[in-house]
UniProtKB/TrEMBL annotation:
It comes from Burhinus bistriatus. This is FADS6 desaturase. Keywords: Fatty acid biosynthesis, Fatty acid metabolism, Lipid biosynthesis, Lipid metabolism, Membrane, Transmembrane, Transmembrane helix. InterPro entries: FA_desaturase_dom, Fatty_acid_desaturase. It holds the Pfam family FA_desaturase. One of its GO terms (biological process) is fatty acid biosynthetic process. One of its GO terms (cellular component) is membrane. The chain crosses the membrane at residues 217-239, 246-268. Residues 1-47 are annotated as: Disordered. PANTHER family: FATTY ACID DESATURASE 2, FATTY ACID DESATURASE 6.
Length: 408
């Protein structure tokens, strides 16, 4: 709804930037960067797809005299790069020893099972009895979020297949057809901006998710219900930034996905009026919108934020600015491990599938703790309480820039 990550929809009210997950995407959407702002190379590597270090947006270190402090920063940077290289070797060994089933098959099977549940969900809605009808709503709601959040997020990172061509096909299918969003903008803003500049002020700082004109209770508990409506509207606005062929394709896919859902409710589920069918669409598409929005703010906002020219290297940036939530059966299935309990692992190695993120989790956590680096974890309830208590500070006011003595 990348998903992490992959969002989702940009909510109007301020200039936004930052995080996709697409349907409303985990990673959110944003306006195009000012001309001259660098975006990481779009090429994909093996395990470390997107494991690059973006160039600073501001400042020019070459203009600074080579004094002792600069030499110390360079030495520290080399040490951080060595840490990331060592960790990458550990992860690559696990990936190389893993089967195709572990790398891709498990997550593909979850998405396939979701498709197979669609007929049961639509048929349950035909019932005049309460329990079967609610079972249909629950089934379609979970299936929708599995396809639009988990599917879109994995597709945006090309984590469903080794083929770039098939990766493009899956991205269009999950992001545009299922999620009613634009694949190019979703992928760029989530993969290139949010992952490239995680928790960097003005770029990947997750301010996409902030609506300062709403009070805490409206934002946390009422506004998420509008996500299914806002998502395609934001997508239409973003089509101005893509080529006309891509825009035409996106419009066709969005219309086809929404109309198929509507048609099936009328002709398979037996809804008698267009309004009842549209209301059911809204209900199923917003069923997990609350945890979707919550997850996107819980895992980054409130953690250290950095200036573009004074951010730490990748391993520190991700260990400081990303948080894992506990495992949850419903959210693990619908959103994927990389957006819930393995978000730190996902930000360090974003091209890995959900199942592989879960497999390398013990290695990542042990390594970071051994090297005295942060490994942020908290419960869903604890983060919800924190955001309700400190909503003005975290979601209304501009976040302070973190100064890390000895790191920056």
């Amino acid at each position: 709804m990348s998903l992490e990550d992959g969002d989702p929809a940009r909510w109007r009210g301020q200039q936004v930037n930052g995080e996709v997950s697409g349907t409303p995407w985990l990673a959110g959407t944003r306006d195009p960067l000012p001309q001259g702002t660098p975006a990481p190379d779009s090429s994909r590597t093996e395990v470390m797809a997107e494991d690059w270090e973006p160039e600073p947006v501001l400042g020019d270190s070459d203009m600074i005299p080579r004094d002792a402090s600069q030499q110390a920063r360079q030495d520290l940077g080399q040490h951080e790069e060595a840490l990331m290289g060592e960790l990458t070797e550990l992860v690559q060994k696990v990936v190389k020893s893993s089967s195709w089933w572990e790398r891709h098959g498990v997550d593909i099977s979850i998405l396939a099972c979701s498709f197979l549940l669609l007929p049961a969900g639509f048929l349950c809605l035909r019932s005049a009895q309460t329990i079967p009808f609610l079972a249909g709503v629950l089934t379609l709601g979970v299936v929708h979020h599995t396809l639009t959040v988990k599917g879109s997020h994995l597709a945006s990172h090309n984590a469903l297949t080794e083929s770039k061509s098939w990766g493009k096909v899956w991205a269009i299918f999950f992001i545009e057809l299922c999620s009613a969003f634009t694949a190019e903008q979703a992928t760029y803003n989530h993969v290139k901006i949010h992952h490239g500049y995680t928790n960097v002020i003005g770029l990947g700082d997750s301010s996409t998710w902030k609506l300062p004109f709403l009070n805490r209770y409206v934002y946390m508990f009422i506004a998420p219900l509008a996500v299914p409506i806002i998502t395609p509207l934001v997508a239409l606005d973003l089509l101005r930034n893509v080529e006309w062929k891509a825009a035409l394709r996106t419009l066709c896919c969005m219309f086809l996905g929404l109309y198929c859902h509507y048609w099936l409710l009328l002709h398979v589920s037996g809804f008698q009026s267009p309004w009842s069918a549209l209301l059911c669409m809204l209900l199923t598409r917003s069923l997990l919108a609350h945890p979707y929005i919550h997850v996107n703010i819980f895992q980054h906002i409130g953690l250290p934020m950095f200036a573009a020219d004074r951010k730490p290297k990748r391993i520190h940036l991700m260990s400081l600015g990303v948080l894992n939530l506990p495992r949850n059966a419903l959210l693990d299935w619908s959103f994927g491990h990389s957006l819930i309990s393995c978000h730190v692992e996902h930000h360090l190695f974003p091209s890995l599938s959900d199942n592989m993120c879960l497999k390398i989790k013990p290695i990542i956590s042990q390594y970071l703790k051994q090297k005295k680096l942060p490994y942020n974890e908290d419960t869903y309830t604890s983060r919800l309480r924190l955001f309700l208590q400190r909503y003005e500070e975290l979601m209304v006011h501009a976040p302070p820039i973190t100064e890390l003595v000895g790191i920056q």
